[in-house]
Specification:
11% helix, mainly beta, 41% strand, 38 strands, elongated, 507 residues, six-stranded antiparallel β-sheet
Length: 507
């Protein structure tokens, strides 16, 4: 009996040593984290008083954030996968047990799918650091998520640190020394989040510089200036204040380069802090190389709190640069803008190259009597299937009449002088068999292989004839494919499928 009791106690002790919630893992993949050791560029702040403080007693905590009853902060969105399990953990300190964390999931188009509230509270009710964590499964259709942290509901200050959102069901110990060894740790990466997106234009005003920005109200002495303490994220934003009794102030960003017909997304945080009138608005404007305005896309802020405005647009044809025009609300209103970012979401669409080839091209293959002319498969010579592009002594020879006539030239033959005459729109070309030269409008151009007759057809070196005489472009594939076009169209890196299909047609 004593032995049985001993075994039971041993089992109880073993299981009590194992975390009851998930599994502790320092290798879990972190999706989003923040230890508040740097700036707050990844957080939207809605606050009365928010402060960064330093814990001198606990080095693990270090710098942390303090929220009061009216304060809240929301992270920038981060990517998730539907159906995947995640753990959210936050270190919390404060006497109030009623602080709140909200985790929201969004679809690819930005539509909110789900939003759940979690009270990761201090169960002891004592003003000591503890860790709250919860495991969630991303709902169907999820592509992004955000974390919102709200302060005390009773007015007492609450402190937060080490926000971690990671993959899997992970146990977080309240023992910080143990945590440092065994759990995924929060890091400060706020300075890199925007650079990872490779924006074509970005400004968060944290360096308090607005070099190259233009203030359009000549009657006012106000300049483009940043404002401390009224920022969407970080510490600074741009203040838009109308100093006129009528009309609106306009502020323009410097130009930035763009690509015509590419897709762009503008996002900008905007807030109206005072005044009874309408909030700030703006335009993303595209320009030609001659500085002509081609097209503009408008956006509008809300009347009170910080919100993120976004515009999706396609740069018009001919556009080479863009800028952003910001306007304050009318009369005496004061507005703020922050985190202005323009990113290219899609490159300029590739042209339908097969359709372009079908308009004007000749496709040949070494040793084949088949050809494609403007997309139509034909024989090079209907009367003689032995007429084909050939390699002779390391030189590729192509049939002169076939190529010239299909590109619109007139072809004549003088049997007594053994001369082929090509009449093109802007020149006359004479080719004499067995001579290593071409006469172009009376000017002699030497070639490394003489013109020769093969199967009763005049043949010339590929590049000498196609490029020098016809003024066309050549694409060559090492398998023997020859594509002759008006402009350079194909590359091996991008067009392998088209190249394979052309070979299949003419080989």
């Amino acid at each position: 009996m004593k032995k049985t009791i001993s075994y039971i106690l041993l089992v109880v002790l073993i299981f009590s040593a194992v975390p009851a919630y998930g599994q502790e893992s320092g290798d879990a993949k972190i999706i989003f984290s923040e230890n508040f050791g740097g700036n707050l560029n990844r957080w939207h702040l809605n606050y009365g008083i928010i402060g960064l403080y330093y814990d001198k007693v606990d080095s693990y905590i270090g710098q942390y954030i303090n929220l009061n009853s009216s304060d809240s902060m929301e992270s920038v969105p981060f990517g998730v996968e539907e159906g995947k399990v995640y753990t959210l953990a936050i270190d919390i300190k404060g006497k109030d047990r009623n602080n709140l964390t909200i985790l929201s999931f969004f679809a690819e188009d930005g539509k909110k799918i789900a939003s759940d509230e979690y009270q990761l509270k201090n169960n002891s009710g004592l003003e000591i650091w503890h860790t709250g964590f919860v495991t969630v499964t991303a709902p169907k259709g999820s592509a992004f998520a955000k974390i919102e942290i709200k302060g005390s509901l009773s007015g007492a200050a609450c402190c937060f640190d080490n926000v971690v959102f990671c993959e899997g069901e992970v146990f977080y110990s309240g023992d910080f020394e143990r945590r440092k060894k065994e759990s995924p740790l929060a890091v400060d990466s706020s300075d890199t989040v925007y650079s990872e997106l490779k924006p074509v234009f970005f400004e968060d005003f944290e360096d308090e510089k607005t070099d190259g920005w233009i203030y359009h109200d000549k009657k006012s002495e106000s300049k483009v200036k940043t404002e401390e303490g009224s920022a969407s994220t970080g510490g600074f934003s741009l203040m838009l204040k109308d100093d006129l009794t009528n009309g609106m102030v306009g502020i323009t960003t410097p130009y930035f380069d763009i690509e015509e017909e590419a897709e762009y997304k503008l996002s900008i945080d905007m807030s109206k802090q005072s005044g009874p009138d309408k909030p700030a608005s703006g335009k993303l404007v595209f320009y030609s190389s001659e500085n002509s305005m081609l097209e503009s896309f408008s956006f509008f802020g809300e009347t009170v709190n910080w919100n993120t405005c976004s515009v999706m647009c396609i740069a018009p044809k001919g556009a080479v640069k863009a800028n952003i025009i910001l306007e304050s609300g009318d009369k005496t209103g004061i507005s703020f803008v922050d985190n202005i970012m323009v990113i290219k979401t899609k490159d300029k669409p590739e042209p339908d190259k097969m359709a372009e080839l079908n308009k004007s091209s000749i496709v040949l293959f070494l040793g084949s009597a088949k050809a494609l002319v403007n997309g139509e498969r034909i024989l090079i010579d209907k009367t003689n299937e032995n007429v084909k592009a050939n390699s002779v002594n390391g030189r590729t020879l192509v049939p002169v009449r076939f190529i010239a006539e299909n590109f619109g030239a007139e072809v004549g033959w003088n049997d007594s002088t053994r001369t082929v005459t090509l009449t093109l729109k802007n020149k006359v070309v004479k080719i004499v068999l067995d001579k290593a030269e071409i006469d172009i409008d009376g000017s002699i151009t030497p070639i490394d292989v003489p013109a020769q007759s093969i199967e009763g057809r005049t043949m010339l070196p590929l590049r000498a004839f196609v490029e020098t005489v016809m003024g066309k472009k050549i694409f060559w594939d090492s398998r023997g494919l020859i594509v002759i076009t008006d402009t350079e169209m194909l590359t091996i890196e991008k067009d392998s499928k088209i190249i394979d299909k052309l070979i299949e047609y003419v080989k």
